[in-house]
Design a protein that fits this description.
about 90 residues, mainly alpha, 3 helices, about 85% helix
Length: about 90
């Protein structure tokens, strides 16, 4: 196995642990943090796949994923706070 394979395996284990936090999180804030960290891990997957395959398509997907994760985290934070989106 190459070092990149070990990185992918570590990211996969971390993603499984984040999914466990999302499913079993006692509060909505814990679930939100789990989803946010899962988004960061997916961008890491895309970065490692870019290096491993040499195709920049994965990096473009990672960039789009990070932008969507950021907007989603803001929306979830406002929802948990109880505010409306236009306030």
């Amino acid at each position: 196995m190459s070092p990149l394979d070990y990185l992918l395996l570590g990211l996969f284990v971390a993603a499984v642990l984040c999914l466990w936090r999302v499913v079993s999180g006692p509060t909505p804030a814990d679930r939100t943090v789990g989803v946010d960290i899962l988004g960061v891990l997916m961008v890491g997957f895309c970065a490692v796949l870019t290096v491993k395959t040499g195709k920049d398509l994965y990096m473009i997907v990672g960039l789009a994923w990070s932008l969507l994760a950021f907007v989603g985290a803001l929306a979830l934070a406002k929802h948990l706070e109880g505010k409306r989106y236009h306030d």
